[in-house]
């Protein structure tokens, strides 16, 4: 006599509506789960920095049927230049060098990708904006969730896709300090008026221990990104004034257009500031709770791989829950085993990228810009780039996507 396992654990709460959350909601809904997404922001977050989608993550986008939307949202950067205090170009790079992407990869604004994923899920997923989880109580039949605003509810599973400062991780696994590894830097991204009249172009101004970047996409505004060496103890995440003062102090004598960009910070509608850190956990699940994306394995905002890891992780986690017929213990275990090598490679890559992005002194800056200037004119520049691109390609493709 044969028996068929009953499909269990069908109601799922996801915390976070940026990239990992809606991507996970897409696949879970497609696999027959009933999904609710809670997001503390009152609406989808607009803007944000440009993010790469590389390697197998583009395959995930293609399997979702969203490749045309992602291509249409591409930043389509034409290139960029490293500039000195006077604005003179020290090195100019074309599109093949500025992004270090392989054929088929792409780059979009984080907010644009969030909208694409939301639009693909809004009709089949319950979204609770302007709310957040305040408590989790696991029991034999599920997880009782307390919310800041909504009444308590019971879900079969709770999945944290709520970023590096994950509330779900804190409630189910412990304080962030146990899992965060600081690279010694901080990053700030803001929208600014495009007073430099940049057209799909990026300008980079390096100074010792700091770098400021300005770039435009197809919008009328531009983005400014400040990256600088910073102590591990930063201002409270809710104290925007203190964060902006720290950035202003760090770039007080940086020259070029930096003073104008710093003065634009208070008026920016999408101010972002955070430490450049990673998240390392031995286990990404605890009982009926699991983590995905930055909440589980943030490779740092400067890795170029966080978005791709979120997309891939969402695909694998949802697929394993389907394959295990809702047996969450088996699914969570297989999810971690399937993703482990991919995550480890990308965490290593992210650490190296983050800690090597900022030159320590003027000599290092001169060496860096001289190499970039020479590279563009080398007839064999493709070969010269291979040692840089190859580790990125390997990390971006270090997993085989199963057909769930």
Overview of this protein structure:
This protein is 37% helix and 25% strand. With 404 residues, the protein is of the alpha/beta class. The chain has a domain at 11-76 and 104-180 and 277-357: FAD/NAD(P)-binding domain (3-Layer(bba) Sandwich). Helix 2 packs across helix 10 (306-323) and helix 10 (306-323) runs antiparallel to helix 11 (328-356).
Query: Radius of gyration, rounded?
Result: 22 Å
Q: What about the largest sheet? A: 7 strands, mixed
The structural class is alpha/beta
* CATH superfamily grouping of the domain at 11-76 and 104-180 and 277-357: FAD/NAD(P)-binding domain
Which terms summarize this structure?
18 strands; 13 helices; six-stranded mixed beta sheet; seven-stranded mixed beta sheet; alpha/beta; single chain; disordered N terminus; globular; 404 residues; FAD/NAD(P)-binding domain
Spell out the blueprint of helices and strands.
Layout: E1 11-15, H1 20-30, E2 34-39, E3 50-53, H2 56-63, H3 67-72, E4 79-83, E5 89-93, H4 95-98, E6 106-109, H5 110-121, E7 126-129, E8 133-139, E9 142-147, E10 153-155, E11 157-160, H6 167-173, E12 180-193, E13 201-207, E14 210-216, E15 221-229, H7 240-250, H8 258-263, E16 272-279, E17 285-286, E18 289-291, H9 294-297, H10 306-323, H11 328-356, H12 362-377, H13 381-396
Parallel strand pairs: 1-2, 1-11, 2-7, 4-13, 11-18
Antiparallel strand pairs: 3-6, 4-5, 8-9, 9-10, 12-15, 12-16, 13-14, 14-15, 17-18
Helix pairs in contact: 1-5, 1-10, 2-10, 10-11, 11-13
């Amino acid at each position: 006599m044969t028996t068929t396992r009953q499909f269990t654990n069908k109601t799922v709460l996801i915390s976070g509506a940026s990239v990992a959350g809606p991507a996970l909601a897409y696949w879970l809904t497609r696999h027959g789960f009933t999904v609710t997404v809670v997001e503390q922001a009152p609406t989808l977050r607009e803007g944000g920095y440009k993010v790469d989608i590389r390697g197998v993550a583009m395959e995930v986008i293609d399997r979702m049927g969203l490749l045309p939307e992602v291509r249409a949202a591409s930043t389509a950067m034409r290139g960029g230049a490293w500039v000195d205090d006077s604005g003179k170009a020290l090195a100019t790079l074309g599109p093949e060098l500025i992004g270090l992407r392989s054929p088929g990869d792409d780059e979009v604004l984080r907010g644009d990708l969030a909208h694409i994923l939301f639009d693909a899920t809004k009709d089949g997923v319950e979204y609770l904006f302007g709310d957040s989880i305040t408590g989790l109580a696991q029991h034999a039949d599920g997880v009782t969730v307390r919310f800041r605003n909504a009444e308590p509810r019971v879900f079969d599973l709770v999945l944290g896709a709520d970023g590096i400062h994950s509330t779900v991780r804190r409630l189910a696994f412990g304080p962030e300090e146990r899992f965060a590894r600081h690279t010694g830097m901080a990053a700030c991204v803001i929208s600014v008026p495009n007073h430099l009249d940049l057209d799909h172009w990026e300008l980079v101004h390096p100074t010792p221990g700091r770098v400021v970047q300005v770039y435009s996409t197809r919008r009328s505004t531009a983005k400014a990104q400040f990256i600088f060496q910073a102590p591990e103890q930063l201002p409270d995440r809710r104290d925007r004034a203190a964060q902006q003062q720290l950035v202003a102090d760090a770039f007080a004598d940086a020259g070029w257009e930096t003073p104008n960009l710093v003065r634009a910070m208070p008026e920016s509608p999408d101010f972002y500031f955070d430490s450049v850190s990673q998240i390392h956990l031995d286990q990404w699940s605890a009982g009926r709770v699991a983590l995905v994306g930055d909440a589980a394995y943030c490779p740092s905002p400067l890795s170029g791989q966080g978005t791709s890891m979120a997309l891939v992780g969402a695909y694998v986690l949802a697929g394993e829950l389907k394959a295990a017929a809702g047996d969450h213990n088996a699914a969570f275990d297989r999810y971690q085993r399937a993703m482990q090598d991919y995550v480890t490679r990308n965490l290593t890559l992210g650490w190296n990228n983050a800690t090597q992005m900022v030159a320590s002194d003027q000599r290092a800056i001169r060496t860096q810009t001289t190499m970039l200037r020479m590279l563009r004119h080398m007839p064999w520049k493709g070969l010269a780039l291979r040692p840089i691109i190859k580790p990125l390609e390997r990390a971006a493709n270090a997993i085989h996507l199963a057909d769930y």
